[in-house]
Amino acid sequence: MPQNIFREEAIETHYSYGWPFTALRQNTLEMKLEDQARNYVKHGGRRFEYRAVGGDLAIALTLLFASWFLCEWVIRCRAARKVA
């Protein structure tokens, strides 16, 4: 029974970027050959979603505004206590 000389090992990785919505998804497939000196990588592809970027940006700006407003409110309350 003949055996396969080249044994392959495939490693598939998935990357996701963005919070709270995933704006970029990337898949990579890496093939490792046992009997050869070099490996090769196949890129599965990238998927970019513009609506998710808009949602991420809107939420980031909302959180930034809320933290700014809260800090300013605390400063005003402390200043009012010192005067009175």
Strand content: 25-35%
Distance between the termini: 95 Å
> Which word captures the global form?
elongated
The amount of helix comes to 40-55%
State mean pLDDT (0 to 100 scale): 82
Domain tally: 1
Please give the oligomerization state of what you see. single chain
- Count the helices. How many? 1
What Rg is obtained from the alpha carbons, in whole angstroms?
Answer: 26 Å
Give an overview of the whole structure:
The protein has one domain (8-83). Helices cover 40% and strands 35% of the residues. It has one helix at 50-83; strands spanning 8-17, 24-33, 40-48. A hairpin with a 6-residue loop joins β1 and β2. The longest helix has 34 residues, at 50-83. The radius of gyration is 26 Å and the shape is elongated.
Give a short synopsis of this structure.
The chain has one helix at 50-83, and strands at 8-17, 24-33, 40-48. By secondary structure, the chain is an alpha+beta fold.
Descriptive tags:
single chain; 84 residues; alpha+beta; 3-stranded antiparallel β-sheet; 1 helix; 3 strands
Write the layout of secondary structure elements.
Blueprint: E1 8-17, E2 24-33, E3 40-48, H1 50-83
Antiparallel strand pairs: 1-2, 2-3
